[in-house]
Design goal:
2 domains, Beta-lactamase, 426 residues, alpha/beta, D-tyrosyl-trna(Tyr) Deacylase, Chain: A, 5-stranded mixed beta sheet
Length: 426
């Protein structure tokens, strides 16, 4: 009899466990919906809230980030220079004597991509550019009446390279202007990427100074800058704060801004005379400082050889959240219906960077989760899909996450009490 009772108890327990187990381990419906979307596709996804993984699929696979590389460069650059930092462009030469500069005058650029002579380029920017006319005004205001020498556009500070491993042959012609330290009008004129922005700026400066009554006896030229010990600053202008330049770059996915600012990052992290590779290595070094290994060959994301995993991208987004400049990066990204998300995700509380190359797509950033009133860091990378297919897939995943992620018992979905109490999105 005791044995029979024991057997009945055991069978009862087994039956209860069999009934309860499916309920305890059933996958949430919203996760299953995303599973079906990504099944049999080369898509990698990572979503985290307050340090906890909410959803993950092939998240350690390293794929091409495309223009998500700009997001990485933004974080690395703002970690090196403060968001309020302004990039200086200066005019130097021999000290003036009674309004006369006896010798050549050099225009030194340090990576301001927004220098404008006026016209279409200045009007195209959603912020006040660094105007060449302001520099002319300041030279004139310094009491300079005559320059006994040339006006020389400096080709120093950056190398003038225009290529990176993994670029397609047509990229310099169509996708990115030459990233120089001294720029003019986006290094673009009459529908063409120009090769001589330093010389064009020097010519424009000569003409405008002459129009202001400042006599220039020499000509416009290009060359290496003089030693600092033999040159005095005559006048200078500064760019808008770095936060403004980075915001424009990310919202409009400007390859030119990215490569110019990437070289500036390289110069800050290692040395002047930086090139595209120097900037790319600086991005990789910053990622490595936060425990993330990436392959980095440029700053714009044009290189098909760049690699990062969604796990790594999200880890770096989490690192940004802990930095004083983190809000600058997040709020500088487009939300639904604006910038590169102009026709996508309207009404969704998202701040994200898009990325697109041939059969490569990416979307990474921050997303508000309605069910827990909290922000998630997320990254979706894919390859082998047409852009319209990949973008639709990304949008469907984002909408599911926003509306359904972490519904039901929160702990079973990887969302902690700490996440619930945290501050909400913007």
């Amino acid at each position: 009899m005791p044995m029979r009772r024991s057997l009945v108890v055991i069978l009862t327990i087994v039956a209860l466990v069999a009934v309860a187990a499916p309920q305890a381990t059933a996958r949430p419906q919203w996760k299953s919906r995303i599973d079906r979307l990504v099944r049999h596709k080369s898509v990698a996804v990572q979503v985290k809230v307050a340090g906890d993984s909410v959803y993950s699929h092939a998240a350690r696979n390293k794929l091409v980030p495309a223009s998500n590389q700009k997001l990485l460069m933004s974080m690395a650059l703002l970690d090196r220079l403060e968001p309020g930092y302004r990039i200086e462009t200066s005019v130097v030469g021999p000290p003036a004597d009674n309004g006369v500069v006896d010798g050549d005058v050099y225009v030194l650029g340090h990576g301001d991509p927004s220098i404008a002579s006026g016209g279409a380029y200045a009007r195209s920017l959603p912020f006040e550019p660094t105007r060449l006319g302001t520099l002319v005004h300041r030279i004139n205001s310094a009491g300079i009446r005559r320059i006994e020498g040339d006006i020389v556009g400096s080709t120093g500070y950056f190398l003038r390279d225009w290529w990176a491993p993994g670029w397609s042959s047509y990229f310099p012609l169509y996708e990115v202007a030459r990233p120089t330290a001294l720029t003019l009008d986006g290094n673009f004129d009459k529908g063409t990427h120009i090769d001589d922005p330093e010389l064009r700026l020097a010519r424009a400066l000569v003409n405008r100074l002459e129009a202001r009554g400042v006599k220039v006896t020499g000509r416009a030229a290009v060359g290496q800058p003089p030693e600092p010990a033999v040159a005095a600053t005559i006048a200078s202008v500064r760019s808008q704060p770095l936060r403004t330049l980075v915001r424009y770059m990310n919202r409009h996915s400007s390859n030119f801004f990215a490569e110019v600012l990437g070289k500036r990052l390289g110069a800050e992290r290692s040395r002047p005379r930086a090139n595209i590779s120097t900037g790319a290595r600086a991005i990789a070094a910053w990622a490595a400082d936060h425990g993330v290994g990436i392959a980095s060959y440029d700053a714009s994301g044009l290189s098909y050889r760049n690699r990062i995993s969604p796990t790594g991208m999200v880890r770096l987004l989490e690192a940004a959240e802990r930095e004083p400049w983190g809000d600058v990066v997040r709020k500088g990204l487009p939300t639904g219906g604006e910038g590169t998300l102009e026709d996508r995700l309207q009404g969704i509380p998202i701040r994200a960077k898009t990325g697109s190359l041939i059969e490569v797509s990416a979307l990474s950033g921050w997303l508000g989760l309605r069910r827990v009133d909290q922000r998630a860091e997320f990254s979706i990378l894919s390859t082998g899909l047409p852009k319209w297919v990949a973008a639709d897939l990304e949008d469907r995943i984002v909408r599911i996450l926003h509306r359904r992620a972490a519904d039901g018992p929160l702990r079973s979905h990887g969302v902690t009490e700490r996440a619930i109490r945290a501050q909400t999105a913007d």
